[in-house]
Amino acid sequence: NAGVTQTPKFQVLKTGQSMTLQCAQDMNHNSMYWYRQDPGMGLRLIYYSASEGTTDKGEVPNGYNVSRLNKREFSLRLESAAPSQTSVYFCASRLTGTSGFYEQYFGPGTRLTVT
Amino acid sequence: RKEVEQDPGPFNVPEGATVAFNCTYSNSASQSFFWYRQDCRKEPKLLMSVYSSGNEDGRFTAQLNRASQYISLLIRDSKLSDSATYLCVVSTGNQFYFGTGTSLTVIP
């Protein structure tokens, strides 16, 4: 049981390049999330997927697209990277239901630098 | 106004001390509350959920005051290994809102 995995761990891009960050979970969770974390800003939600086949914008979606490929996988795409997208990106997943406290589980993060 | 506000610290305390962190949230419809711990350059990990009646897990005690929209975390008998950033997290529906975190360093 690997939990939440992310690839790559590190990436350096030039302005204007594109890339896809991959995330997968093996906990049979319904919901998946993408966050970015910048110094002094806390984690900010980019996009989330409440269930397979659905995606919704979070607080900072501009410049990003997502795909919920299946229940396990949720990818984040930067079509034209900008220096402002330099950040640490975390994927998370969560079981959802009608009752109880369902916490989020995080992947190890991707450290992205755009030059 | 931010959804979740925390004192960023830093808190520097000696081993064995008791330290308390506070957090306020703005949405009265918030449903679930958590404290996460984040070590330097690592992913956040759940420390404990926060229940309406308050709850304790060893040296850690969490309290929730819905009327004041206030959450607290108390750490007793601090250990060196408690040094980390503590994130207050509030959930409404499918969305989670994170505070910026409170930095704790426990000094020998």
SSE-based structural type of chain A = mainly beta
Give the percentage of residues in beta strands of chain B.
over 45%
**SSE run of chain A:** EEEEEEEEEEE
End-to-end separation of chain A in angstroms reads 36 Å
- Proportion of strand residues of chain A: over 45%
Structural class of chain B: mainly beta
Q: Work out the largest interface and the residue count of each chain.
A: A-B, 26 and 21 residues
Number of DSSP strand runs of chain A: 11
Can you give keywords for this protein?
heterodimer; A: 115 residues; mainly beta; seven-stranded mixed β-sheet; four-stranded antiparallel β-sheet; globular; B: 108 residues; six-stranded mixed β-sheet; five-stranded antiparallel β-sheet; 11 strands; 0% helix
Describe this structure in words.
The complex is a heterodimer of chains A (115) and B (108). In chain A, strands 2, 4, 5, 6, 9, 10 and 11 form a seven-stranded mixed sheet that branches. The model of chain A has no long low-confidence stretch (mean pLDDT 93). In chain A, a hairpin with a 6-residue loop joins strand 5 and strand 6. With 115 residues, chain A is mostly beta strands. Chain A is 0% helix and 50% strand. The N and C termini of chain A lie far apart (36 Å). By secondary structure, chain B is mostly beta strands. Chain B is 0% helix and 56% strand. Chain B has no helices and eleven strands. In chain B, strands 2, 4, 5, 9, 10 and 11 form a six-stranded mixed sheet that branches. In chain B, strands 1-3-8-7-6 form a five-stranded antiparallel sheet, with no helix packed on it. Chain B is globular and about 40 Å long. At the A-B interface, strand 4, strand 5, strand 9 and strand 10 of A face strand 5 and strand 10 of B.
